[in-house]
Amino acid sequence: GVKKTWTKLAAEESVSATYVVSPGDAGSVLAVEPAKVTFHEEAGDENVKVAFSNHVYDTSKGADGITILSQAEYDRKASFRVKEWFTFLLLLVIPIGLPFFFFQQSSNTH
Fold this sequence. Notes:
The protein has helices at 71-77, 82-109; strands at 29-31, 36-40, 48-52, 65-67. It is of the alpha+beta class and 110 residues long.
């Protein structure tokens, strides 16, 4: 794995590190593990403390990682879904438009 090291931190001081992850082939799963932090509470202390970061991705589907999408798959998932919205609006005309049409027809005849 990739490592970042700080020799000493003052009390209440914080540090951060950023890593860029490059995807592989589309359809593959990029294995992602939480960050592991090892530290000593005091300089020269032999007792090593270990902490892990949180998982920030959904593992509910069983894959312990990030699925890499092709550009076409990404475009499909992120699209505005114009075709679906057009179909929805067209179907919306039936329960709203037809009663309105019949109401207008009946009020014009009286």
